[in-house]
Amino acid sequence: MGSLVDYDVHYRKGRGQCGDPFPPIVAALETLPVPARILDLGCGQGRDALLAARLGHEVVGVDLSSVGIAQMVEDAESEGLNLEGIVADVLDYRSRRKFDAVVLDRVLHLLLDDDERARCLQRVGSLTRKGGVVLVADTPRHAPQIQAFFADGWDVRKRTKNYTFAHKC
Question: What would you measure as the largest C-alpha separation in the chain, in angstroms?
Answer without folding.
Answer: 42
